[in-house]
């Protein structure tokens, strides 16, 4: 049986290699884009009036940085004697261009435009981003003005986490396994959609269903090749969890080797400059489309669990596997269905995360802890609890950034603090049920 497990792992690895190999030389395409030289360049001027005419003097020694929308640093430069700077970016997409006001000389402030602004960089573009200093005439939004946008961003982030976390919760409910390899299913979905979209030329509306199909197939293959044999040999859950960590690390770095360390973007909908504005809330049209997709998918999962025969069997196995088996339910078949469904949902979550934050080799690993926090906070083993927990976690992440804007890199810590506080009051989670002990 051990030989069988090794053979299946080898087959899964070979299948992943073949899928990515069909995409062509990914590293070569990445190098080609690097040769295009996407970057942000510009100058920092001190602008003032002298004898009724405008004078612009270059300001050296000013620090300018480029970050991803989530706050991750991309690059940084310091202006030279001519006030010039240039920062290379890893790929086309949306970034934040930030001027460090602490490095400005005395008596000089940012003028009409803000010290940070969102920029959209197209393939091969060397975007010009100048800063003009002088008298500060900005209208700075207060923290309370930014609160509605932070709440909206938190709910949106939470609903995307929910799509990926529901499968993780169902797997835990039916098998008791904390599957750390679920994160690589998320990454796999994002990468396969990118391969189909950017390498094979499929539109994203076709590439996304293809990625979901790949996730469904991968979920079935992992169950048949790894987890079903381990369950048949009655391997303990702790050992299975450790095996999932090993698989996660193996496939994570295999994807990094094949896909590359760069951050990539889809060919459609990534760079939208026509935001939808609803009062104090602003978002690109793709966000609205993603929300609709999430609601439809989560509604479909709810209908499956509540109204279909297989869905009711899944709930029965989650509640009591032994009793479900005694009543004639084929628990092995139900668990296989859950693995297939979990793989598809993880892949779809990966596509949505990639559309919102771009595609990278560790995209799933970056939200793995948040997915576990969501299903634990909501109540382990329940798909509906995973949704509630995901929304709370998404809000906690964004509200942490709202409360502490100077420590945006630590915003996910706020989600874990909320998790601890809720579990101290309600150990079974928000929608969980108390368990009898003894």
In words, what does this structure look like?
By secondary structure, the protein is an alpha+beta fold. The chain folds into two domains: 2-29 and 145-425, Orthogonal Bundle (ABC transporter involved in vitamin B12 uptake, BtuC), CATH 1.10.3470; 42-140, Immunoglobulin-like. The protein is 58% helix and 14% strand. It contains 13 helices and twelve strands. The protein has helices at 2-21, 26-36, 143-175, 182-199, 204-232, 237-259, 285-307, 309-319, 321-326, 331-357, 363-378, 383-403, 411-425; strands at 39-50, 53-58, 63-67, 73-78, 84-88, 93-99, 109-110, 116-121, 126-128, 131-134, 276-278, 281-283. The strands form three sheets. Strands 1, 2, 5, 7, 9 and 10 form a six-stranded mixed sheet that branches. A hairpin with a 5-residue loop joins strand 3 and strand 4. The protein starts with a helix and ends in a 13-residue tail after the last helix. Residues 22-35 have low confidence and may be disordered.
Determine the CATH topology of the largest domain.
Answer: ABC transporter involved in vitamin B12 uptake, BtuC
Count the E strands. Answer: 12
Named at the architecture level, the CATH assignment of the largest domain is Orthogonal Bundle
Query: SSE string, helix = H, strand = E?
Result: HHEEEEEEEEEEHHHHEEHHHHHHH
Report the top-level CATH class of the largest domain. Mainly Alpha
């Amino acid at each position: 049986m051990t030989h069988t497990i090794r053979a299946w792992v080898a087959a899964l690895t070979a299948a992943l290699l073949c899928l990515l190999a069909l995409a062509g030389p990914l590293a070569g395409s990445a190098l080609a884009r690097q040769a295009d030289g996407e970057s942000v360049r510009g100058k920092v001027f001190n602008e003032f009036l002298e004898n009724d005419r405008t004078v612009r003097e270059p300001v050296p020694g000013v620090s300018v940085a480029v970050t991803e929308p989530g706050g991750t640093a991309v690059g940084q430069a310091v202006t030279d004697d001519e006030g010039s700077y240039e920062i290379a970016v890893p790929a086309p997409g949306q970034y934040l261009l930030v001027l460090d006001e602490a490095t400005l000389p005395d008596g000089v402030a940012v003028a009409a435009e803000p010290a940070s602004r969102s920029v959209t960089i197209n393939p091969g573009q060397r975007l010009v981003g100048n800063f003009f200093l002088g008298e500060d005439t900005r209208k700075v939004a207060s923290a309370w003005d930014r609160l509605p946008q932070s709440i909206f961003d938190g709910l949106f982030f939470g609903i995307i986490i929910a799509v990926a976390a529901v499968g993780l919760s169902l797997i835990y409910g039916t098998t008791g396994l904390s599957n750390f390899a679920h994160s690589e299913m998320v990454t796999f979905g994002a990468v396969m959609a990118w391969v189909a979209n950017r390498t094979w030329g499929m539109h994203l509306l076709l590439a996304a269903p293809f990625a979901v199909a790949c996730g469904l197939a991968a979920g079935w293959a992992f169950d048949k090749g790894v987890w079903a044999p381990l369950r048949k040999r009655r391997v303990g859950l702790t050992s299975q969890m450790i095996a999932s960590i090993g698989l996660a690390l193996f496939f994570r770095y295999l994807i990094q080797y094949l896909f590359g360390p760069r951050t990539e973007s889809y060919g459609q909908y990534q760079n939208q400059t026509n935001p939808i504005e609803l009062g104090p809330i602003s978002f690109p049209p793709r966000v609205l489309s993603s929300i609709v997709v999430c609601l439809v998918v989560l509604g479909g999962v709810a209908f499956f669990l509540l109204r279909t025969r297989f869905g009711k069997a899944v709930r029965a196995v989650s509640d009591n596997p032994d009793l479900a088996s005694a009543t004639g339910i084929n628990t092995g078949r139900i668990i296989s269905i859950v693995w297939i469904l979990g793989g598809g949902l993880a892949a779809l979550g990966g596509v949505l995360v990639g559309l919102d934050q771009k595609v990278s080799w560790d995209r799933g690993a970056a939200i793995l802890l948040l997915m576990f926090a969501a299903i634990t906070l909501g109540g382990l083993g329940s798909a509906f609890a995973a949704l509630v927990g995901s929304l709370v976690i998404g809000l906690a992440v964004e509200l942490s950034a709202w409360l502490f804007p100077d420590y945006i890199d630590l915003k996910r810590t706020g989600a874990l603090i909320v998790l601890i506080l809720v579990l101290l009051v309600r150990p079974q989670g928000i929608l969980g049920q108390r368990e009898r002990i003894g």
